[in-house]
Amino acid sequence: MAPADYLHSMFSLEGKTAIITGATGGLGKSIALAFTKAGAAIVSIELPDDPNSSSLAAAINEAGGPPVRVFSCNVADGAAVRKAYAEIWAADIVPDILVNCAGTSIRRACEDTSDAELDLLFELNAKSTYISCQEFGRKLLSLSRPGKIINIASVTAFQANRNTSAYAATKGAVMQMTKGFSNEWVSKGIQVNAISPGYMHTPLTELYYTDKAASDYLMNRVPAGRWGQPEDLDTAALFLASPMNSFTSGVSITVDGGFCGK
Fold first, then answer.
1. Of 3, 40, 208, 262, which has the fewest Cβ atoms less than 10 A away?
2. pTM higher than 0.85 for the full model?
3. Fold of 3-256
4. Is the per-residue pLDDT at 3 higher than 80?
5. Contact 258, 223 (CB under 8 A)
């Protein structure tokens, strides 16, 4: 086999189906497009009337992938997430890959974080990720089918920065549930890993990206000296989802320009 053919086969997702939460956001959309170009069909769990849904569908179509299949729910509502999965299974979709990318961030001092903000962060970032893993894994186990789960954590799971205590707590939870699910499922062929992005330029961080003082402060902490772009996560996600990864489970790949190593 020629080297190029070998690399293509090892990173190919041909014939695979990837369920992605948060696929209409900055990081999720980039991963969805990378998976599409590698041959996967995309199932998007997204908000009802998501304003970015048509943009995702158009981008996947332009990349030559099959039409994205959309299932709507408020991902911050655990019962709604379970209902969305029931609808996915009722549509006879057989899953191979799950990416939990839906999430949000609230920057607030510890003493000022409200109960409502805590509820939103933990429901969306932590509980919904757990439920999504649970529903996806249950289906694979019932089919005796292998699969790959990729949770999007954060460097704040390792270093809780100022004004990120609640967000960091949710991403720490994502790290621990990744390990827990892996411990129970990897022997059954379900690999569970995480990606921990650093400072990434997405709509969620636009406020800090465009504020020169804030951006300079943050970039002085990043040895690479630049903001990460959504595409910087693609290779890590492709590795974790592809046949190239046959033995990695229960870990996080940190994509942060050297931030955590500083």
1. 3
2. yes
3. Rossmann fold (3.40.50)
4. no
5. yes
